[in-house]
Amino acid sequence: MAAGLAAAASLPRPPPVLARRRFGFAAGLFDTWPNALVTLLLVWLLIRIGIAMWDWAIVRGVWEAETAEQCARTGGMCWAFLADRWRLILFGPYPYAQQWRPALAMVLFALLLGASLAPALWAERRSRLALGIAWPVTIAAIAALLWGGVLGLPAVPSRLWGGLPLTMILASVGVSGAFVLAILLALGRRSDMPVIRAICTGFIEFFRGVPLVALLFLASVLFPYFVPPDWTMDVLLRAQIAFALFFAAYMAEAIRGGLQAIPRGQYAACESLGLTYWQAQRRIILPQALRTVIPSLVNIFIAAFKDTSLVVIISMIDLLGAANASTAEAKWWGLYIEPYLFVALIYLAICAVMSAYSRGLERRLGLGER
Amino acid sequence: MSGLATLWLRPGVRAAVWQALAAAAVLAALLWVAGNIAGNVARRGLDIDFGFLAGRASFEFGENLIGYRPGDTFLTAFLAGLANTVLVAVLGIVLTTMVATLLALARLSRNRLLSRLAWIWIEAVRNTPLLLQLLFWHQLTIRTLPAPRQAWELLPGTFLSNRGLVFPALYWQPAMGLALAALAVAILAAVMLRRLALARGDGPALRTGAPLLLALGAPAVLFAAAAEPLHGSVPALRGFNFQGSIAVSPEFVALLLALVVYQAGFMAETIRSGILGVPKGQVEAAASLGLSRLQQLRRVVFPQALWIIVPPVTSQYLSLTKNSSLAVAIGYPDLVRVSQVTIADTGRAIECITILLLVYLSLSLFTAFLMNLYNRYLMRRRG
């Protein structure tokens, strides 16, 4: 009994709590004069903005109009434009009657991605196997849907692809290609062999040192010079390669960070077990390193998703390009807030979901505490 | 076992073979591409020649720092484009740092409303593409601002319209050179005065007031004594636009705004995590010494946070510089835009894109070099 008390007394006590949260959310809003002033100012500002938005979008919003001019009369939001043009913005120049195909493809892809991102499914061998089968099957289905030419679907050439599906293709294919390359680059940059190290470092620093715009120009303007004259490649594929190389350089640096965090003992243990270099990387080092860098890889994916909008500069019609195209017709010419706001909300929703996922994963893996 | 097989078992030999193979593969790929380029260029009856840079460029762009005009050489045009890139990058870096610091502090504020709003703002700007924001700001500036005839006169002689911001240009006068020289001397003297006051432990009047008065007052008095009136040219409306003045185009304003808004969101999070990275005990120790909240930040938290913040912020400065190349989408005459127009004019695509890549690469490598120097300096100071 006495020994127990002595042990309890010697336990480190938590520091005394000086200020207790008494009002929940309201704590810290009015505790000092300057703070109260800031709070009041912000509340006033919020109310003003809220009223202005309500007035613009609802009170003065125009639901029935044929042209931008009719919409401009009230100076409010032109809902009629969105009602008329939302399918063009979402799917770009894809044939109107066939637009259910990219829509279905996107849903399939979202389901596949959503399932693959659930950490609960990584643990079990059976669910991993199921995912391993689901991926190629779904990708084949998506390709069949988009290209057509099979099962009675009319063929749609890739130059007619556009809108959100194109953005998703550019980002996901680019990032998947980049991932494989990035692992090799990261390993190469940490290799003991100076020539390999120099090649990988040079590659990474080159692609990190130039702007994506310049690379896209390179891909769209100069690529025909780089290959024999009888090789032709459509612009989509060329842009895709440029994206993959660009993202690979950034991903390689993230993965290198993960590799550097692996304790030396792990390498020594691999050697003492007699594993070859590739066995050690595949079974011991990479699984641990990649696990720690998943959040930063998701962040690179978000950046890639946004960066694909740069294809507008080489005249491809992705989501942002379709927003530009939606006002090209004379009757809607001059509108810009509605289309940009619409696609901004789409980008925002997708990126916010991904970044919330990345934060959740970080918390789950306890990476912050390491 | 044969001799060759035992040789293969030696790690050194294996490494040498692999490296030789890798080097050969890379070399072969490069040679293949070079051969293709040479073949394609010859087949189209072209050549690769940077001599075109000495030719006359006919395109014009409104704003540049080095006074390029149509009829100057392409080299001058490229330099003007580079100067525009540097201008937007430098201004962008300064403004972004200030905005990001304020955002980070707002995010760390005890006022939950303020920190929550800052969070929403940061998430919104970080999760939409920069190009989208840029196009939006550009449309906003050219569509909502009035035409030059109805320009808003912000200050006497300063007009804001959809052609940009124009303000009076000052002509160079001898008295201004004198005042600038005086300013340099006065700042030097003020710094020394402050050192002296700090060493003697003087009050704030002598410590801060006197040096400030000296630094700003002396040049002003000198300039007034020179009694030369300011000669400037006031913008005048000619035809559809203003002339005879310095102008800032709506493209420049939109580009700067978009870069600062977008990049500040990212930088704010970096600064915030740097501030949070300072051990809590440091803040508690500072508080227990009786330092005020501002003093804690300035004397204890910021100096240590800087150590964490500088490397990631440098790469964000670099990415801001590279992102300024999106200017091409709205027609601001930066380096990329000049190359694009030059390609259209001369068909020298290979040369122009090579210049573009080399310039950006050297900017990046130069910054990385400065960064390493700074890191080494910090490392040494830290011991």
Describe the structure.
The complex is a heterodimer of chains A (370) and B (383). With 370 residues, chain A is mainly α. Among the domains of chain A are: 96-156; 163-224 and 232-365, Orthogonal Bundle (MetI-like fold), CATH 1.10.3720.10. Chain A has helices at residues 2-10, 33-59, 68-72, 79-91, 100-116, 120-123, 125-147, 163-189, 194-209, 212-226, 235-260, 264-272, 277-307, 319-325, 337-365. Chain B is an alpha+beta fold. Among the domains of chain B are: 3-43; 74-159 and 252-382, MetI-like (MetI-like fold, Orthogonal Bundle). Chain B has a four-stranded antiparallel β-sheet. A two-stranded antiparallel ribbon of chain B has the order 4-5. In chain B, strands 6-7 form a two-stranded antiparallel sheet. In chain B, a hairpin with a 2-residue loop joins strand 6 (236-238) and strand 7 (241-243). In chain B, helix 4 crosses helix 8 (250-276) and helix 10 packs antiparallel against helix 12 (349-382). The two termini of chain B are 55 Å apart. The model of chain B has no long low-confidence stretch (mean pLDDT 81). The chains are: A mainly alpha (370), B alpha+beta (383). The interface between A and B is large, with 58 and 54 residues.
